[in-house]
Specification:
It comes from Streptomyces sp. R39. With about 575 residues, this protein is an alpha/beta fold. It is about 50% helix and about 5% strand. It has three domains: about 10-170 and about 480-520, no CATH class; about 170-215; about 220-475 and about 525-560, no CATH class. It has a seven-stranded parallel sheet, with helices on both faces.
Length: about 575
């Protein structure tokens, strides 16, 4: 056994060349830049992090820093060799000693100081600033483990490249052999990651999501009211709606609850939902949604809301129920499923969300326009997270279409790729911050994080009204590919109240930090991160302005809806 292992190692060494690869000592430049990147990774980001997540962030950052430093040192050695110079052993030992002392001091000092930074971030989102010190002391060790694993993986890849290049060296010139080795190694790595690891992971996620989509939440039962999809007379059958569709129609607000809240007679609200299994094609599903609205009397209601779903088909009750209470049940809400995968997976295939949003809105709008102008319901849009992207896509990202074709809209926690959001944000007036832009003196579109923001600017707010709810600390809103190379305007001053004043932008690193913040976007109190709580209640009151509705009614309804669950990003 030992002899076989020794012979295998000898063959690999013979093909790889005389230089050690996997067991090679770290380079000075790589370690230096790795320490720098480790320290920078502990600087504040948008949201608090658990110690293990901070260790992962720091480890990956340090590994990337090592790669950059190694390349810089190699270039420096080539230039020095070209100039006929070299680094003497004594100087090299001195440099290593200085790096050891200063690097260790920097790691310890910055890790300790980061506890203060983390406390600032926690205060910004109203969490207690206290951190368990022994857990945070594990951060450098977790980071070292991550760096070691990534460095070993990189050196194994490098070894494979050397073996391939050496094997081709006898057939083609050395530069061609090296290039061939690099290309083949890259091809194999990409094939393994995409064709095996990534595909297997996505298949497992899809399989689990498919099974979950066929389940029904405990306590949710098939409705019997004709105003709801999935009822006995519905063409959108109960078992085709998907888990989130069954939740949506199975938890419609009872008219008795509405009447008890308002003190006035109420109607049974209309809720229409079409699942992926309800019809074979996108066009057929959109047509079925319109037929369901006709069957349930949705086009004769006062308010008709077209709603975009998140990846799993979920619609937040905090966005759907307020309309039913405010308008005494005289509402219709319609939605259509485009996926059953979690939003963070569905975001990889945004085309499905965009196509579904356009198909649903176009079908509803086409029918709506045939109705007499004096008896049409008020047509409004709603979407949260990826659902907001779906509904914005229905308008082709056009502010003019928003004003001309809708009676109002509510978009909650928009993504960086939302077409309408990008357009109106880019048109903000000078001096207004990116996190709360002012567009055309707030004539139609306004942005808010708290109810007081609806009054900004102090100018007339016409009809129709659209509101964007976006928290300053929501990584879903603020992460984008451009964050890697460009300092974002939302870090300018004044900053949103929930963004740490100590947060700074660093090329590449800040993009990685904010991407990791997505993991904790739902682990903060309402009003921060990707949690908006009952804020949609006040937004709908401002957008639709129900007759006789008061600020006290809004506060009272928010108290009623506050206990509703808000599952979050996984939906």
């Amino acid at each position: 056994m030992k002899d076989g292992t020794r012979r295998t190692a000898e063959r690999v060494r013979r093909h790889a060349g005389p230089d050690r690869v996997v067991r090679r000592r770290p380079c000075w430049g790589g370690v230096g830049v790795a320490v720098l990147c480790y320290c920078l990774s502990l600087t504040p980001s948008l949201l608090p992090r658990a110690w293990w997540l901070q260790g992962l962030v720091a480890g990956v950052s340090a590994a990337v820093g090592y790669a950059v430093g190694a390349v810089l040192e190699t270039l420096a050695r080539l230039l020095l060799s070209w100039a006929g110079g070299r680094v003497r052993p004594r100087i090299r030992r001195t440099l290593w000693a200085a790096l050891g002392v200063l690097g260790a001091a920097a790691v310890v000092t910055v890790t300790a100081w980061s506890v203060r930074w983390e406390g600032q971030v926690r205060r910004a989102v109203t969490l207690p600033p206290h951190i368990v010190w022994w857990q945070w002391a594990l951060v450098p060790f977790a980071a070292a483990l991550v760096v070691t694993l990534l460095l070993l993986a990189a050196r194994v890849v490098r070894l494979s490249t050397r073996v391939v290049a050496h094997a081709f060296g006898a057939l083609v010139p050395r530069p061609v052999a090296c290039a061939t080795g690099v290309v083949l190694a890259a091809f194999v790595i990409v094939g393994i990651v995409q064709g095996f690891l990534l595909r297997a992971a996505l298949d497992a996620i899809e399989s689990g999501a498919s099974l979950a989509d066929q389940g029904t939440t405990e306590g949710v039962h098939q409705p019997t009211l004709p105003t709801l999809s999935g009822s006995p007379g519905s063409a959108a059958h109960w078992d085709t709606l998907g888990a989130k569709g069954r939740d949506f129609v199975g938890t419609a607000t009872p008219r008795a609850d509405i009447a008890a809240f308002t003190g006035r007679p109420a109607k049974d609200p209309v809720r229409v939902y079409v699942g992926l299994r309800s019809a074979d094609t996108l066009g057929e599903r959109a047509a079925l949604a319109v037929r369901e609205l006709e069957r349930t009397g949705g086009f004769s209601r006062t308010v008709l809301a077209v709603m975009g779903t998140t990846g799993t088909g979920w619609i937040n009750d905090q966005g759907s129920k307020p309309l039913e209470y405010m308008w005494h049940g005289d509402t219709a809400e319609v939605a259509m499923q485009y996926s059953y995968l979690p939003s963070w997976v569905s975001a990889l295939t945004e085309d499905e969300a965009a196509a579904t949003g356009r198909a649903l809105f176009d079908a509803v709008y086409t029918k709506w326009r045939t109705l007499p102008a004096g008896s049409r319901p008020r047509l409004v849009l709603y979407g949260e997270s990826l659902g907001s992207f779906s509904m914005e896509s229905a308008l082709n990202g056009s502010p003019a279409a928003l004003v001309a074709e809708t009676g109002g809209a509510l978009f909650v926690g928009p993504t960086y790729d939302n077409p309408l959001w990008k357009t109106v944000t880019a048109r903000r007036q000078p001096g207004s911050p990116e996190w709360r832009p002012v567009v055309a003196d707030g004539a139609h579109v306004r942005f808010a994080q708290v109810p007081a923001d609806y009054g900004i600017p102090d100018a007339p707010w016409g009809e129709p009204r659209a509101v964007y709810l976006q928290n300053g600390s929501d990584p879903v809103v603020w992460w984008s590919p451009g964050l890697a190379l460009r300092r974002p305007d939302w870090l300018d001053r004044p900053r949103a109240r929930d963004v740490s004043p100590a947060m700074r932008w660093y090329p590449l690193l800040t993009s990685w930090q904010v991407a990791c913040d997505l993991a904790g976007a739902d682990s903060v109190p309402d009003g921060f991160g990707h949690r908006y709580g009952t804020l949609p209640t006040s937004a709908w009151a401002e957008i639709t302005r129900p007759p006789g509705w008061t600020g006290a009614d809004t506060a009272r309804l928010a108290g009623v809806l506050e206990p509703l669950p808000e599952p979050g990003l996984l939906d």
